[in-house]
Each structure stands twice: as C-alpha cells, then as structure tokens.
C-alpha cells in the first residue's frame, strides 16, 4: 500500500494538491512540517511518495524543493498537480486590522500578497513560517506572539477557527502552483503523449556558450523547454547547475537523443523522471522530430554502415 506524505499541516495548498491525486484517496497520508522532512522520510522508506510544491506561476521555482530533490539519494518525479491559489488574511476572533503589526505566512504566500499588504497594511512586518497552514494553526493555538494574522488558504482559516478579515488578497488573480509527487526510483510512468521530463544538468566548467551547448540539445531535437532555472551547486561561488523541465517522455526518440546529447556535453545529468502533464496538453512535435523520423534516420545510417539485415 502506498503511504503518502505532504508538506503539512492540514490546510496547506500541498494537501489540496494531494487531494487532487486520485490514487492517494483513502491511503495513509502523513503531514510533514517541511519539504526537507517529507523528502527525508521518502528517502528513508517511511513513506512511498511525497507531494511537494515546485513552481508557482507568479513567484517561480520553490528553491527548497528544487534543491532537496536533486541533492542526496536519487528520487524521481512520478506526477504533477496544478492547484489554483487564493489567500485570506486570518486572525484570532476579536483581532482587528489595527491590531495587526506582523503577518505570518510561507515565503511563497508573502511573495503573492506583498502588493496588497503594502497598500492595506503598510506597517505590518512579515514573519516567515514553514507553511501557510502552520501560520494559521500556530496563531489559532495561541502558540505565537510574533504575528497577529496569518496569510493562508480559506480552508486553513476555517479549519482552525480563525476569522477572515479579508479574502482574495493575492496580487495576481488566477495564480497557480505546481506540485510534484516524488517517489524512490522504480517503475517509470508510461508515456501518454502529453508528458514532461525533469532533469538537473551540471556543466563541466564555466565557459562562453556553455548554456547554449545545453540548450541546443533540446532545440536540435524540436523539444520545448517549459522551465529552466539555475541553482547554485553550493560548492563554490559562481558554480551553478540547471534544473530543466521539458516536453516529452524519456521513451520518446527525440528525448532519448537529447538526453544522450546532454550526457556528452555535461559533467552530470540527473534524470528526475518522465510523467504525465497535469494539463493533459499534447506535445506539438515537428515532423522532423517524431519517433518515425528518428527510426527512419537510424535505418538510413545502418544501411550506410552495411548493418541492416532486412
Ligand atoms: O504553505 C502552503 O500551504 C504550501 O503548500 C506551500 C505554498 C505556499 C504558498 C503558495 C503555494 C504553496
């Protein structure tokens, strides 16, 4: 039986993402207080899969997750879920706006309400918390005196008995966060025609055109990159690796060729998985990059080499 973990507590957006993963329904679901703890439990075998936030349409990549996924024992991504995000300002009953001198929330929460805060509560100080729901739960339990209001999901305010002072306080409506389900390496999800692959690429050294060499592996095979981020490797100042999502599945010919190309030009390539896209959008493949086009070219080369038997 698959045991699931998620960035908790109850009421996080990550829990909402896990609720959007049909196979997790009715399964054991454990809340962890941080992404690192959830992924450590996964690596140690306490759980079999962990739902973690990876990218937001407004704020970009979740560095804690990006780094924790590719450092340490290998993990793979087996799926993704998109969750629409909306925030409320929640307080203990009786607290008024004038009482709010500081606001607790997850860094990605703060990044999405900064404008609203600047105009509505300009003097309020930001206090980072491990999750939006933790900010709400600790406030409701009277465990904190460092902030008087939490920025969280409506469900977190309701669940903890907090009172909502303002709703829909996000600066950009329609924001979406992308969550991934991580697992220990095992069976690869089957290709669906609407897949994504995630890799982390380490360059040999810092040189002119180095990034272009990596990117041309994708361009030459007609592969669309959907996210590209540089992350410091942590060893030396100025040394970066690249976290890349692109369209296609490792079993697609064009993706296989791009990966072997990357393997040649990069010092290391960490394959983090191929999995169905949450939006089900089929990859648009140029005629020159279909599996048939690659097979045809392989046959042609085999002929030239006198290797074909039929
Ligand atoms: O803190 C949460 O609720 C999370 O799941 C992380 C997060 C925070 C803000 C936006 C999206 C996800």
TrEMBL record:
Underlying gene: pheA
Top EC group: lyase
PROSITE patterns, per database record: ACT, PREPHENATE_DEHYDR_2, PREPHENATE_DEHYDR_3
GO terms, biological process: L-phenylalanine biosynthetic process
Residue ranges of domain ACT in the record: 199-276
InterPro entries recorded: ACT-like_dom_sf (IPR045865), ACT_dom (IPR002912), Chor_mutase/pphenate_deHydtase (IPR008242), Preph_deHydtase (IPR001086), Preph_deHydtase_CS (IPR018528)
GO MF annotation: an example: prephenate dehydratase activity
A GO-annotated cellular component: cytoplasm
EC number: 4.2.1.51
Protein name: Prephenate dehydratase
The Prephenate dehydratase domain, residue ranges: 3-184
Pathway where this protein functions: Amino-acid biosynthesis; L-phenylalanine biosynthesis; phenylpyruvate from prephenate: step 1/1
Organism, as annotated: Allobranchiibius huperziae
Site, Essential for prephenate dehydratase activity: residue positions: 177
One Pfam family recorded for the sequence: ACT
Annotated catalysed reactions: prephenate + H(+) = 3-phenylpyruvate + CO2 + H2O
Keywords: Amino-acid biosynthesis, Aromatic amino acid biosynthesis, Lyase, Phenylalanine biosynthesis
